[in-house]
Amino acid sequence: MENKFLIAGLFFVFILVSGFWLSRTGRPLNTFILTAHKLISLGAVVFLVMTVYRIHQASPLSPVEIAACIVSLLLFTAMIATGGLLSTAKTMPGIILKVHQITPYLVTVSTTATLYLSLVRKQ
After folding, report:
1. pTM for the model
2. Which domain range does residue 38 map to?
3. How many whole angstroms separate alpha carbon 32 and alpha carbon 98?
4. Contacts 24+ apart (CB under 8 A), 72-75
5. In the list 25, 59, 82, 119, which could disulfide-bond 100, CB 3.0-4.6 Å?
6. How far is CA 94 from the centre of its chain?
7. 72 vs 107: CA distance, rounded Å
8. Cβ proximity of 72 and 114 under 8 Å
9. Distance CA 110, CA 117 (A)
């Protein structure tokens, strides 16, 4: 169980660090950092989906756990969508940037709750 939290935590640390690094480079965005940031984010999503799927295969998820998974997935989707919009050459409205700056923290809290609910119950 601790390994799942550690791996997920490392993913989030790398996402945040690469995101801060990317924001400090300014426009035009550094392609290497942007690609690394996107791949780390995609890796986190894949890791978390696989983890929840394996937990569900071992023992079906409760409605609360399913709801937590859905919230996490929706937040991840919002984070990826706003990040994609911000990585274009066009200037985006300020709300897009604000949403992208807030959602990583919401995703972290939501995913931690989802993993906690799913993994602790299975013990």
Report:
1. 0.81
2. 2-121
3. 23
4. 72/48, 72/107, 72/110, 72/111, 72/114, 75/103, 75/106, 75/107, 75/110
5. 82
6. 21
7. 6
8. yes
9. 11
Tokens 């919002």 belong to residue: 78
Single-letter code of the amino acid located at 14: F
pLDDT per residue of the chain (123 residues) written in tens, 0 to 9: 568 778 888 888 998 899 899 889 888 888 999 999 999 999 999 998 998 898 889 888 889 989 999 999 999 999 999 999 999 888 889 999 999 999 989 998 998 888 888 777 655
| Total number of residues shown for the chain | 123
